[in-house]
Structures are given as structure tokens and as C-alpha cells.
Amino acid sequence: MKGGGRDVAVVGVGYSPVSRGGDPAVERLTTTACRNAIDDAGLKSADIDGIFDYAFGFDSPDTHYMQQVLGIADLAAYADIAPTGPSGLAGALAGIMAVASGACETALVYRAITQSAGNTGTARGGGANLSAMGASMQFTMPYGHFPIIPTIGLMMRRRIEELGGSIEDYGYISLNARRWASMNERAVLREPIVMEDYLNSRILADPLRLFDCDYPVSGANAVIITSVERARDLPQKPVIVDAMAYGTGPAADWLQTEDFLFGSTRRCADRLWSRASVTAKDVDVVALYDGFTHITISWIEALGFCGIGEAGDFLDKGRRIGPGGELPLNTHGGQLAAGRLHGLGHLVEAVAQLRGECGERQVPNARVAVVTNGHGPQTGAIVLRTQ
Amino acid sequence: MEPTAAIPKPAPSPTEHSQFFWDAAREHKLMIQRCDDCQRYIHWPQLLCPFCQSERLSPAEMSGKGSVYSFCIVNHVFHPAFAVPYSLVLVELDEQPGLRMLTNIVDCPNDAIRIGMAVEVTFEDGDGYTLPQFRPAAAEVQG
Ligand SMILES: [Zn+2]
User: Fold this and answer.
1) Class of the B63-143 domain?
2) Is the dihedral of CA A324, A282, A285, A368 positive or negative?
3) ipTM value greater than 0.90
4) Which of A10, A204, A332, A380 is most buried, taking the most CB atoms under 10 A from its CB?
């Protein structure tokens, strides 16, 4: 991998069932996804010597819990990653670094989330604490600001004003998710919608609507990361990590950051391309975070698929990012339609595309993919390619 | 929807280095942290100047003038103490580009709020604390 270390590949992916409603045990979801990923990679749990996960506090099992469940004798590298990271991709980035550096040979990465832990639009937490967001809440919560929906509403309004965007630009991201989801049996919202449905969806923080938000579910994803050298002996077609990057930007805060509209997506994207062996023109399929539609639009422009402020024209009423378009986007339906699996679902789908396993929604000859997570001061991105 | 009186709005929980902001608000003054060395304003309050790493930081009284950087109108009940719809607004203070505060806009219908409109600080005395708020600037109201 350019920038140092061994070449690294993703060699296994795993899914749990995804559900809406009910209260499935998050440890069972996690275990199912992890075992499926290990099986998919043609490995046994004893082959795993690194575990990395991302969690909001104690919303899912930690690395020690999963080490015990999987009966792993010892871990050469592990970390439970805190909320500042770029969502579920944070675990994958840590796993890539651990394998690239030689700290471990084969890393298991997971993100498990339950619907109740998702952002369901109610106020929780707050008070004084030493997280950047916690420390700022004394200046936001007394005004009725509860992360993060109003923050995104503020970004959308400013984008429309400053860059001349339209509300329909966001709508095409929402429509696109449902369109692809109709071809993914694991997706939860598979009925296509039209612009009128989007515009008429409930307004939460005007101009932000319900259909700008991802869909909270319960579920888990897992991936297995190892060296390219080791990958040669494994059954799956290896998916190579070409480059990875993080970003925060200065004043690492969602509201006070210098680049309010884009957060750190532009810094992260620039860093990513500076390390990659390919360019934006080489990309066949993208999985760009869509916790909110604004985030996806930011990444499209930050990654240079079009100029800043040009996403509206670029989307071409959704044709460019839909089936048969030149930049197929979130082919699993994204979190808007396949459920809020918190970032790792985007990586799992990109790997499946590069392995050619996506059936009806397969992008022909997909060889290069970009996966991104997060916005504000918490961004991460990966370029993946086939060998 | 009417607010639920039984559940209070979340009160500010000052830290050692933000106490000045809330003390000043109680006296109906808007004070923002300022670096004695590089003279830049800092919000939220920090332990070191993020621009020059100086430890010499002091509260500075502001003009209270600013403009609307962005706004949204909240229609969803995130917390029962807040009656919807209400505005959430980022105001950029006149003293420094990019120096933003989150606030509500008061004394103004929600549908009259515009990006770029001139606003000025006002103070809302609450139960045990005072919130700086913003309203259309006097000139803006006159026409
Ligand atoms: Zn300074």
C-alpha cells in the first residue's frame, strides 16, 4: 500500500439478518456476521489475530466479548474505537493499518447496531463531558438543538443558498437508494419512490425531510482483512486496498468547523487521491455514506466526480448514479434503503461488487471502487481495486 | 404542539473555562473568549488558543451584531420542552469571519428569517440562567 506497509486485501464479508422493529440481541447479530465473514474468507476463528470494532459507547459487544465467543487464544492487535471515528469504516481502517504494519496477520472487523441505538430523532445524553461534542452541548441543547438532524438541516439550507443547489438534488439521492434497493433482497425499503414522495415526506428540520435520513434497523456487518500474500491462499477473489485516508479538518466540531458545508470530506478525499494508484476517472462503483443525503452530495463533489456545487447537474435526475449510469452509487440501497448499518455496509457492498457477486444489480466489469464514511470532523475513505 | 411545562429545557452546564460566558449573559452581556496574543476570538471556549497555542485567553465583550449564516425550522419534537416549530440559527458575529454561534431567532416569524439578515443579541432570562438570543437588528425591522 502506498504510504507504507504491506499490501492488504479484504478477503471475507459477512452479514447478519437485518430487521426493523423487535429487539434482537446485538451479540447474536454480531456473532452471526463475524462467523459468516470468517466462513466466507475460508478461515477458522483460530486464524484471527486482530479484532477492531466501532461503537457508540456500549451499544454492541466489544473486542474481548467477541474474542471469547470465537474462542481465540490471543489477539496480537485489537481496539474498540470510540464515536469520534468515521462510523463503521473506522474499524476497517484500523484493521488495514494493523495488517499493513505487521501488528497482526488477519483482522476481523465488525459494526453491529440496533435500531434503538440508531439516530431515531429523540434527545439522549448531553451534559458536560470531555468529548468535543459533549463539551459544546451547553451552547446548543438549551436552544433545542440535538445532534445531528438540525445540523444537517443547517448545512442543506446553506448549500442551497451558497452553491445554488436545489432540494431536488437531495431528492435524487433518496430516490436512487430505493431504486437500487429493489434489486437487493437484504434491503429493507425496496419500493421505488418518486420525487413527489420525497418532497412530501415529513419535514423534520426544514429543509431536511424524513427521506433525507437513513433508516434505523438492527443488524451487523463484518469483514476480514489480511495481507495480499496470505490472500493468495484463500478461496475468494481478493479485493485490494489501494489507499485509505482519514480527515478531521480544523476545529474538529460539526458546527464550528471551517468548512461547514463539507466538513472534512474534501481534506479526506484529497489525502485519499494523493495516495491512490488510480484517479476518480478510473472508478467503476461508489459506496458513499448516506446517513443523510447531504453527506452523499458532499462526497460526490469532494472526491472530484464533479466540481463543487455541480452535483445537481451531475446527477442528471439520478441517471448518472442509477443502474446503467456511469457512477453507480450505493448499489445495495445505502443506509437510506438497506438500513442504517453504520458504514460497514458500504464496504461490504463495494467488496461484493468487485467480486462480481451482486446478481441483478452487478455493475459490469467493476474493478475500482471508492468507499467513504462520515462527514463533519469524522471522515474516512478507502479505494479498493481488483488485482 | 405546546411545550410540556413539567419537563424543563436542558440548562447550560458550564465548565471552568466557559463560566464567564454564562455569568456575562446573566448581566445581559455577550462575552466571547479572545486570545490576548493573536487577538482572535474563539468559540466554543478552549483551554489554549487554537490559532497560536497561547494560554493567555480573556473574555471580550462583543457588539452583539451579526448576520444569519444558516437556519433550519424544527418541526420534529426532539425534546418535549420545545414547542415546534422553532428556529435553529447559526449567526456569524460581525467581529470575525467564521465566528459562529448557535441560537434561536426571536421577535421574528420563522418564515421571515433569511440567510444574511442582520441580527443583534438579546437576552432571555430563564429559570436560573440567561440565554443570549438573537433578533432582527433594529435597522432590519425598520425597513
Ligand atoms: Zn492566539
Assistant:
1) mainly beta
2) positive
3) yes
4) A10
